[in-house]
Design goal:
Elements (H helix, E strand, L loop, with lengths): L1 E4 L2 E12 L2 E13 L5 E11 L7 E6 L21 E4 H9 L6 E5 L7 H13 L4 E5 L4 H5 L4 H7 L2 E4 L7 E4 L2 E3 L3 E4 L16 E4 L5 E4 L7
Parallel strand pairs: 5-7, 7-8, 8-9
Antiparallel strand pairs: 1-2, 2-3, 4-5, 4-6, 9-12, 10-11, 13-14
Helix pairs in contact: 1-2
Iron/sulfur cluster (SF4) binds next to loops.
């Protein structure tokens, strides 16, 4: 038996039970599927270990594609929706959940909320398989976010979201905020705003293959 409620499909088994002349129905739920679990996400890069994209040791997923075009954006190579790698959200979730020693995952980009179904599907799978915290960077501000149909699901799946365009004239580069107009919205009690203050603004990661990844809200230019 498959049942539906907004945005989700419930796979369940119904059994009709007769007791004292009255029929009742027993319901056993086997799983809940969010839309998007079967989708693909356009990726720029996965960083398996970073300390500059949220509290503690984290993985970071940089999605590919952003149309918001903030002047001075640190990641212009993530804007084009026609490049990057298309990967199933199931394989991305499997990779993230197999990483040892991380307390959470950060989704950045690129603009994660311009792939909303894939994002919700990915986060549902990650949450299903562990206790990783989830932080999202989005260029959409709080008012824009409040109009998005996926906001209810984000509230259930995300611990904190950094919102707002990067505004060069308001450059801040501290505590995960690139500019002072941006704000951190907390959707759970897992973190407080104080947890974001000591996060380093920049990080240089030397990968196993000798390549270098630059990260953070104020990345070093080499
Ligand atoms: S929203 Fe983020 S990725 Fe997109 S242009 Fe602005 S700073 Fe760059």
């Amino acid at each position: 038996m498959v049942g539906f409620y907004p945005g989700k499909i419930i796979i369940a088994h119904f059994t009709r039970v007769k007791s004292s002349g009255i029929f009742t129905v027993e319901l056993k739920v086997h799983g809940i599927y969010n839309k998007g679990m079967e989708r693909s996400m356009r990726l720029h890069e996965i960083v398996p270990l970073t300390h500059a994209n949220g509290p503690g040791a984290r993985a970071c997923i940089w999605v590919q594609g952003c149309s918001l075009a903030c002047p001075g954006c640190f990641n212009p190579e993530t804007h084009d929706f026609g490049t990057g790698l298309l990967r199933s959200v199931a394989s991305i979730a499997e990779e993230i959940c197999s990483l040892a020693g991380i307390e959470g995952v950060t989704i950045s980009g690129g603009e994660p909320l311009q792939q909303p179904d894939a994002l919700i599907g990915l986060l549902s799978l990650i949450r299903e398989h562990g206790n990783l915290s989830v932080i999202i960077f989005s260029g959409f501000d709080k008012k824009e976010l409040e109009k998005m149909p996926c906001l209810g699901e984000l509230r259930q799946l995300v611990d904190a979201i950094v919102t707002g365009r990067y505004v060069e004239e308001k450059r801040l580069a501290e505590g995960l905020l690139g500019s002072s107009n941006q704000e951190i919205l907390l959707f759970s009690e897992r973190y407080s705003l104080n947890d974001f203050k000591p996060i380093p603004p920049a990080e240089v990661i030397i990968n196993a293959d000798g390549t270098i990844t630059l990260s953070g809200v104020d990345p070093i230019k080499l």
